[in-house]
Every structure is written in structure tokens, then in C-alpha cells.
Amino acid sequence: MLRLRSQLQAKKLPPDLVTLIDTIAIAGKDIAFRLQQGAMSGVLGSAEKENVQGETQKKLDVISNDLLKTYLLESNTVRGIASEEEENIVAGHDHAKYLVAFDPLDGSSNIDINSMIGTIFSILHAPTTETVSQADFLQPGRNQCAAGYILYGPSVMLALTTGNGVQMYTLDQRIGEFLLTTDHVVIGKDTQEFAINMSNQRSWAVPMQNYVNDLLAGSEGPRGKNYNMRWVAAMVADVHRILCRGGLFAYPWDNREPKTPGKLRLMYEANPMGMLVEQAGGSAWTDVGPILDIQPETIHQRVPVILGSINEVTACVGYHKNN
Ligand code: AHG
Ligand code: MN
Ligand code: MN
Description:
Pathway: Carbohydrate biosynthesis. The chain is α+β, with helices and mostly antiparallel strands. About 30% of the residues lie in helices and about 25% in strands. It has helices at about 5-10, 15-35, 60-75, 135, 205-215, 235-245, 265-280, 310-320; strands at about 45-50, 55-60, 80-85, 90, 100-105, 115-125, 145-150, 155-160, 165-170, 175-180, 195, 230, 250, 265, 285, 300-305, 305-310. Strands 4-3-5-6-7-8-9-10 form an 8-stranded mixed β-sheet, with helices on both faces. A 5-stranded mixed β-sheet has the order 12-11-13-17-15, with helices on both faces. The protein binds 2,5-anhydro-1,6-di-O-phosphono-D-glucitol and manganese (II) ion (2 copies).
């Protein structure tokens, strides 16, 4: 009864959505197996290719993308996919009910050091028109039917929301099934922990500089408490920590590439994580408004991200309003 598929069926979700989530879970198990083989199966290192965003792809970025693509496009529940590693959307089955946007491997720089990485996914309703196009994917995050990630860590875990709270499942390797391990994830309202790449500090906008300076001032500063810092360099792992014990995660705009609004991608990083965090009682903002209200303009669009414990996100956003 604790198995993923039976849990989803018990929630009386549409059968095609259950099948789709189960398909993503199967792809995740396949990716996890290849990750565990590591150097023994020659999957580490660079693919010596660039993706559409000018990032050098790792072999496992390409392998994970190919696996997800194959599983999803085989499923008659998928009308189309958008991936970090694909320049354009790829059409699936006519009349299928869902679109999937995904980051096949988040935290690529951790692959070769055997550290935390994950797969992030966002599920949207498909159009009822005859053809599927990029425009069909450009729906605000509020429209997501489901969102989640699979974390490849000491345990393989699935965090999932279908719009009614957040559940966590852990892969039982003996039987090859995701089992429900946390039924109701709640992010505490307050925190004394933040996650941000401090090496970019001099490149941030003034409000973010001021906010982090005040965190660093600790109990003697305006925030009146000491903060701890964590940075896994994989959003999926930093968000997982926040779902487990609260905190604030930010990847703000910086002036290294002034025309780029941030590093993280709206459709397959910020939106699914934003839905999970909101569904767990946290908050997910850009510097000007809730992430889930953004009307996307392109599938690979980037956004500044501030998410986590609601009172800390409100405090951080307040610095942007006052400056
Ligand atoms: P990806 O590996 O999918 O390109 O995403 C990496 C992202 C995100 O997961 C992480 O929070 C951030 O890049 C790390 O950035 P830094 O290299 O600046 O630490
Ligand atoms: Mn990513
Ligand atoms: Mn990625």
C-alpha cells in the first residue's frame, strides 16, 4: 500500500497522470542504476558537446536526457517534452494529455565528484489542438498539474506534488519500488540557514548585497540572529534540504552576464521547485513577484530565484522593495 503507484491511485488522480509519474519514476531508477555504476561503466566525464545554452554537457547529462526522452516519448500519456538538453520541444503522441518539461540532471558539476545530483520535472496539461508547439509549454507555473524531483544521493528519493501537499518516497533497492516515507512535508516558517553562491557576491545587485551582509552580521546585526550557510551546487539537493529542515535558497541576478536575468531556468528548475516549496508551506519568489505567476516567453528562459522558509523569503524580498 505504500508503493508510489498505489499511493497515486488512492489519491484518485487521473489514470494517465498516474502512468506518467510512474514512467518518470522508472526513468529515474534507470538513471540511478547508471550513476551507481559510475566509472565502471564509462559514464563519467565530458561529452565534449555544448547544449543550446552554451554549457558543456557531461556524458551523464546526455545519457539521462536520452533515457527520459525515450521513456516519455514511448508513453501514450505524453504530448510533448521540453528539456534543458534539447534546443526545441519534441512532439510525442497525438491526443495525449500531458506536456513534460525537465532538467535531466541537475548539478552536473557534482557528477564527477560522486556528489548529490537529481532530475527535476514539471507536468502541464497538453493543448487539445492537432499540433503541439513551444507556445503550448509557455504556461505559468500555477498551471502545473504535478512537479517533483528525483534525488540521487545516499538514498534515491522522489519528492512529488500533485497540488495537494508534498510527499517524499525512498527507493527500496531490494524490490525496485519507491515507497512513501514522508506523507506531509512542511517547511518551517523561520530559519537560520541560507544557501547562495557567495563567490558571486560582488556581482549581485545592491539589495541582495545588503540582505546577505545583514545575515553575515549575525546576532549583532539588524536580523538579530546568527546564520549558517550551506551550498551543494545542485539546486535539487539544496531544495531537498529546505524541504527537510527549512532554509533560504537564492540564485539571484548578477552582472557577470547583465542581459541574463539569472542562472536558473524557469520552466524546468524554478517552476517545479516553486510548486513543491509553496505546497510545503514555503514561498518562491523572483526579486519582484511569485515565480509561479511568471508568464514564460521561451522554454529556456532564466529567472532570479529566492525560495524557502516563508518569513526569510519575505525578509529577502523586502530588501528589494525598499531599495
Ligand atoms: P545544471 O547542472 O542543470 O546546469 O544546473 C546547475 C545549477 C543549479 O543546480 C545549481 O544551484 C547551480 O547551477 C550551481 O551554480 P554554481 O556553479 O554557480 O554554484
Ligand atoms: Mn539544473
Ligand atoms: Mn541539468
